[in-house]
Description:
- Helix content is 77%, strand content 0%.
- It is mainly alpha-helical.
- The N and C termini lie far apart (53 Å).
Amino acid sequence: MNKIIQAFSLDNRKKWAWPYIVFMAIFVILPLLLIIYYSLIDAEGHFTLRNFEKFFLQTESVNTLVYSIGIAMLTTLICIIIGYPAAMFMAGKEYDVPKILAVLFILPMWINMLLRTLATVALFDFLTLPLNENALIFGLVYNFLPFMIFPIYNTMQKMDYHLIEAAQDLGANKWQVFTNVVFPLSMPGIYSGIVMVFLPTVSTFAIAELLTLNNIKLFGTTIQENINSGVMLNYGAALSLILLVLICLTSFFGDDNNQEGGTI
C-alpha cells in the first residue's frame, strides 16, 4: 500500500504527465504528422510539392484566404471594442459589480456553438433579415465575444489597484490613468483574447455555411470541401498545413509583442 501511495505521490510528478503525453501524441502530434504526410504526396503516393504550387497558382484559393483573414481581423476588432469596456466594467472595484454578471456572460458558452448558430439563423429568419456578410460577422462576434471578454476580465481582476491610486495621487486624470496604467497592464489579456478569437475565426466553416447559406466561403470551408471530396484529400491537407503555418507565425509574432508590451 505504501508503495502505491509513493508511486502516485506529488513528489513523483513525472508519472502524472504520462496521460497528457499519450493524449498529445495520439490526438495532436499524430494528426499533424498525417497532415504533413498527405500534403507532400500525390494521389499515387509519390513525393510532390504540386499541392502547394496549386494553391499559389489558384487565385480563388489565395483570395479566399485573404478574405478569411480580413473577416477574422474585423471580428476580432469588434470583439475588442465591445469586450474591453464590458471586461473593465465587470472588473472595476468602484462599480461593485455582482459576480452573477460574469456568469451571464458564461451562459452562452454552455450551449454548443452549432446550436447557437442555428438559433441565430432562426432569429434572422424571424426578423426577415438577409443571411449575408453582415449576418456572418454578427454570428462570429456573437460566438466568440466571450472568448475576448474573459481573458481581459481575468487580467484586470489581478491588477494591482494600488498603481491606479498612486497615479491618481500623482495628479493623473482618468484618461492618463487608463493609457499609462490600466491599458498596459491589461495587454496580456488583450493578446490572449485576440488569439482565442482571431485564430478559430480564420479556420471556421460551419458558421459561414449556415449564416450565408454557403454563399460566402471562408478558408475553412475550402479545406473542408477538399478533404470531404476524397479526390482532393492531398490538396486539402496542403491547405490545412498552410493555414497551420500562418496561425503559428501569427501566434509567435503576437507572443513576442505581448512579452514586450506586457511590462510598464
